[in-house]
Specification:
This protein is an alpha+beta fold and about 100 residues long. It contains 2 helices and 6 strands, in the order βαββαβββ.
Amino acid sequence: MGKRLYVGNLNYRTTEDVLGHTFALYGNVMDVTVIEGKGFGFVEMETDEDAAKAREELNGTELEGRTIRVDEARPRPERGSRMGGFGGYDSRDRW
């Protein structure tokens, strides 16, 4: 189990402080991110054990009027070089 948790079905008014304090009841919270206007966020716990405990205790519970979903976050995709919207145009290329 990873230490980073996905938290879905958040109330759009839920703040990072509220989410962090909620998860802190189950262990040390290292980082909290709420994606504004999307209804989800991420919580990183200090240990795998803290994350497992928080997931078990909070999944399906109510937070600010919404039943939240807590699951292990998927790994972040690798970010390679991005060349922009010109199909890989390199400024060294000549027309």
